[in-house]
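Quick one: structure for this chain?
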Amino acid sequence: MSATNITYFGFIPGYVIFWGVTLLAAGFFLNRIFQLRRYMFLGKKPAGFGETLKRGFDSFWISLTQWCQLKNLTAKDRASIGHALMFWGFVTFVFFYFLFIILGAGFGLSESLEHTRFFFYYAWVMDIMAVLVVTGAGWGIIRRYVVRPERLATERTFEAIVILGSVFFHPITHLFKEATSIALGHPPVGLGAALPPVSSALSSIFSGSPVGTVETASIWFFWAHWLTVLFVLVIIPYTRYFHVMAAPINIFFKAAPPKGVLSKIDIETAENFGLSRITDLTWKQILDLYTCVICNNCQEQCPATATGKPLNPRKIIQDLKMQLLDVAPRLIKAKDDAAIAEINPENSVAGKVLAEDEVWACTTCRACDEVCPLWVEHIDKIVEARRNLVMEQSNIPETAEGALRSIEDRGHPWRGTTATRTDWTEGLDVKTLADDSDVDVLYWVGCTSALEERSTRVARAVAKVLQSAGVKFGILGDEESCCGDPARRLGNEYLFQMVAESNIEILKRYNIKEIVTSCPHCYQVIKNEYPQFGGNFEVTHHTEFIAQLFEEKKLSLVKGPSGTVTYHDSCYLGRYNDIYRQPREILGNMPGVRVVEMENNRSRSFCCGGGGGRMWLEERIGTRISEQRTEEAIKAGAEIIATACPFCLQMFDDALKAKGVAEKMKVKDLAELVAESELYQP
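Got it. Here's what it folds into:
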C-alpha cells in the first residue's frame, strides 16, 4: 500500500495535524493569490480578446506538450527537456495528491481508492515520473551551479536553489515512502508481482529491518514528502515558482496575431499617454510581470544586451515587477486621491524605473518576445515608455526628433536628402497612379528605397524585375508619404495616426488591389496596423512576390551572381511575419549560387540594429549591432550578404566599411541579385 496508508491517520491527532498544516498552507497560498489579484486589477482593463475556445485549446496544448519550452531546444541548449520532465511530473503528482492523499488519506478513503487497478497503474506512472523529475531537477541544479551557460552566469540566487532543491527532494521522498510500504507488505494492488520497479528496488534497503523501524521510517517519509509539498504551495505565489500557475493564463491571453502590432491610443479621450505610472499597465501586462521565470532567454537573444547596451529585457520586466510590488500595497491602503498621487506619481516609470538609455536602446526586433517560453511581451512596455517620454515629457534624442519633424514637414524621415520620390525612376518608364491608375499592383517604394542613394538601386531592381515578368504596376510618386513606422516605434503615436489616416485615404481613393513593398517595416504597418484605422489592404513583400513569379514560371534565371551568398533574415519580415521560405527560394532559383547560413538565422536571426527607429538614433554605447552581425557573415564564409530590407542594407553597408571588408564582401538586396542575373528569354 502507498504512503497514504490509513494507519498513519488511525488516531485523531494524525488527522488534526494533517488538516491543520494543510489548511494553514492553503491559507497562506490563497491570501497571497488574493493580494496579487488585487495588485493586477490596479492596472487598466485590456481590450477584449475573443476566440475563447481557440485560446483555451492553445493554452492547454502548449502547456501540456511543453512546446513553450521545447520550441527553444537547440543543440547547444537542451534545458527545455529538463523543464518538460519537471512539468509533466508536476502534473502527475498534483493529480496524485488530490486523489490519493487529500481524498484518500485526508478523508479516510484509502481503502476504497487504493485497492483498484487504476491505483496500481498510477503507482507505476508515479514511480517512473519521480525518476524523471529527479533527473530534470538534478540537471537544472548542475546547469545553474556547476556547468552554467552564459545566460545563467549571474543567476545563482537563493530562490533558485530553494525551488530546484524542493523539486529534487520531493519525488525522492515519494519513492522511499512507497518503498517502505512495499517492505511492510503493503504493495499497490495489481497484477501479480509486477510491482513499481524503482520503489520495489528501494524496498530491499529495508529488508531484514525490524517492522517497527520500517513503520517509523514510512511515517517520516510520508511527512517529509507532504510537508515539502505544502512548503512549495506556500512559496509558489512569492517566487518565480508562480509561473506554473500564471503561465497557462498568460498564454491564454497572449496577443492575437498578427504579431508585434502595437496598441492604438484614442488620442481624444486618453487621460495620459504611455507608461507614466505602474498602474498604466494593463491586466495582461501585469500578468506578464508575474509570469516571468527569469530564465534569461530574452537577454541572451537581445541584440542590445549582446552588444553592451544598457537594455536587458529581463531586467525591464523585473524592474517593473519590483515597482508594482512596492507601490501596489500602499495604493490599496490609500484613502484619497492625494495619497494615491504621492504614492504613484506621474512620470515615475518612463525615465526613472526604466532608464532613458534602456528605453531608447531597443530595436523592437522581437527576439525577446519570440524566444520567451511563457509569452511575456517586452516590446509593448518599452514602446509605452517611449510614448510617455515623447508625448508627455517631450523628451526624445535630438536625431530622432529631427526625423519625426521631417516626417511631419516633408513626409519622410530623411532630413538631408534633396531627392524627390520619382528621381529613382529615371529611364525606367514607371508610371504613377495619378497619370494612370489602371494597374494590377501598386509598388509602395518606401522612404528609404525612394530617397536614400544606396537604396534607390533596390527600387530600380524591383521595377526591372516586375517589368521583366510583365507585371502591370505603378507607384504613387509624390503622393506617397512615410508609412509611419518610425513615428510609431519612436513613440509619437499622434504623428503616426495622422500619417496613417492620410495614407489610407489615398490608397482607398485609388481602389488599390494589391500592394508590393520593398520595406518590411512598411509591410508590417500597412498590412497589420493600418486595419486599426479601417485600412485593410492586400500587402506582399517583394520577396514573396518575386518567389511567386518564379513559381508561376514568369521568371527564370540562366545564371545567378557568382560567389557565396548568405541571407540575413530581417526582423520585421521574419519574426514579425514568418517570411523565411520565400527569400531562400529566390536564392534557390539562382543557378550556380552557393548559399550558406549564418549561425543565427530564421527566428533566431540577429538584428541589423536599424529597427524601432534606431536608424535615426546614434549608436554611442557598446558595439554596433550591425558590425556584430557582419562578423557572423564573415565567419560563415560569405562573399555576399543578401538582404530584403532597406534598413538592413544600409546598416550592413556601413558595417562592411567599418570592418574593413567592403572590398571583398558586398551587401545586396535579393531584388538586386535577381535583376543582375541572366534572365531566361523564351
